[in-house]
Design brief:
By secondary structure, this protein is mainly alpha-helical. About 50% of the residues lie in helices and about 10% in strands. It folds into 2 domains: about 5-120, no CATH class; about 140-370, Aminoglycoside phosphotransferase (APH), C-terminal lobe (Aminoglycoside 3'-phosphotransferase, Chain: A, domain 2). The protein has helices at about 5-25, 85-95, 140-150, 155-170, 180-190, 195-205, 210-225, 225-230, 270-285, 290-310, 315-320, 320-330, 340-355, 360-370, and strands spanning about 30-35, 55-60, 65-70, 110-115, 120, 140, 235-240, 250, 255-260, 265.
Length: about 375
Amino acid sequence: MASGLDDKAKIEVLTRGIERRLGELLSAGVTIVSIRPIAADRAEGELKHVGYGEPLLVEYRGPEGEGRAVFRTAGPNWFGHDRRSDRAALAMLAADTYGEIPDHVRVLDVGALGSGGQIVPLAGTTELYLITTYVEGELYAADLRRIEREGRCSALDVDRARVLAEWLAALHAEQVTDPPEVYHRAIRDLIGSGEGIFGLVDSYPANCPIDAARLARLEQRAATFRLKLRDKSRRLRRTHGDFHPYNVLFRRGVDFSVLDASRGCRGDPADDLAAMSVNYLFGGALSRSAWKNGLEALWRSFWTSYLDRTGDDEVLDVLAPFLAWRLLVVASPVWYPSVPDETRDALLRTAEYALDAPRVELERLEAIAVSA
């Protein structure tokens, strides 16, 4: 939200905020003598650089004489700090860890800047929180569990799969104008982040029935997609980022809301498609009758509706690593400890097929996943 203040006014607000905050931290009255960039090639008093991550030397006077402190923000870059949340994590991690290192500078405070330049302290806090609105509804996962249990679906179930696909098609229709590095990050996070393929492989316990060498080979195959997808940045779209059945709430009919948009809401549409559709395969792998009399219809309604609405035939060329990621989740003994070993094997064989195939064929996915 815009503050309505010009840069000069924001600098004045910031200066007063630093002065007040230092006084609180030192339990004494403090007067700011000067604030200037530490970098030698910056002009004295060039406070506007605070928005670009320049460290500022703060000279102040208090009851015990003169003192110095450094005020710094983190600037955006393409090394995992392009989002505001990345830079917040840097500051919080520094506050939590600097004190563990001998001879390190001490952290006096950590906080955030308000839209008008004011200081919002976070020192002494524990976990960050989020307050959202509340919506009624039942998790879409409950629909899928019912179909698995009863072995059949209703016309409404098929309609809901169609509506979810159409909702994604509308969301993905917006081609965002972010630079290619945003797409590159989405692929990098898919492969190598703690929530991505590498993190999931790490989470498989040592005594699980899945052979470690098999997981390593799967991980290595997935890593090859880093370069394969590098020139696909034109596919960057607005995405939900975690579009699975536990993040969709249905009310009556096809009316629904979504929860927990993730991963910067930017990426390849294949991410959202894999996140939802793998759950139809998962249910079919658990119960062939549920697949034949219910989940197969949902799977086909979902994919047909999306492809018909978007014409994005290329998505099947890039789907593999996204599908493998989500299959690693549902095959995981950590996330789903009661899944039979033969089902886990079928899910991982499906991931292996996708990663090895030059192009994913939906019919082959069905045949492999539901073969157990």
